[in-house]
Structures are given as structure tokens and as C-alpha cells.
Amino acid sequence: MVARREWPMIAAAKLPLGIPLFLLITAPWFWLVQQATDGRWLNDFLFIHHFQRYTAGAGHRQPFYYYLTTLPVDVLPWTIFIVPALIAYRPYRRIWQTPVLLFFVLWFISVLLFFSVSATKRELYLLPLLPVLALLIGNYFNDLSAGTIDETAIFRW
What's the whole-model pTM score? Predict the structure, then answer.
């Protein structure tokens, strides 16, 4: 929505109804857990296991590029199709014109960058990327079979 500047989608999201509904469902649970643990669980859950682990690290320190070395292995055997899929959607301004592709690319980049900046890095943190890569590769196969992208030598190979 922000990338394509489609501001009317904010009204379509019905946030004035959704946010109170979300709080109505979740707040009682958090309040009960807070009461049952004398506030320890919520403090540990939010501060130690999320904020502190993200900023200060809790072991598992790796370089910024760590996920670029582990993600291809995690996606096997579909890794071989990622490069042709990325090449197929050149020029990349086409991505900005196709909402589905833009969603996949922004999903991937935002999650990868968010966890790459973190001090703590573990392979399991990238589990949210596996569905988007599967969807991107599936979209590539769909476009290839429909003939909407060029079938050059690399794609036939």
C-alpha cells in the first residue's frame, strides 16, 4: 500500500474496527498471564526474548551476510529456480506494476533485512521467508506456463 501509494486501502482495511477487536481478543489473555506470573512472564517475553535478544544478542552471533549463506540450503531443492525467477522479472520496474510480485519482493526484503540487522542470527528465524519463496517460484512457474514471460535459453535449460 505504501510502496504503490494506494492510500484508500487504509480505509478498506477497517482499522477502527480491527484494532479494538484485536485488543478485545488478546488483551484479556495478556492480562491473565501478567497476573499469574506477577509480571515476570511478560517482562521476560517482551524485553529479554525479543528486544534484548535482537539488540544485544543472546549467543548465535553471525555476520550480516549469514542468511545469504544459509537460506539457499534451507530452500533446497527449489533453490535452483530462484535465480531464473529473478532474471525472468527483469526489468525490475515491472515488479512495481504487478501487486503480487511487489508483495512477494517486499515481504522477502523486509524480513531478510530485519533479521540480518539483528545481533542474534539463527536459521529458524527465516522460516517466514520459506512461504514467500515458494509463492514467488510458483508465480514464476505460472507465468512461464502462461507465456507471460519470455522463454529464453536460461529458462529452457
Answer: 0.72
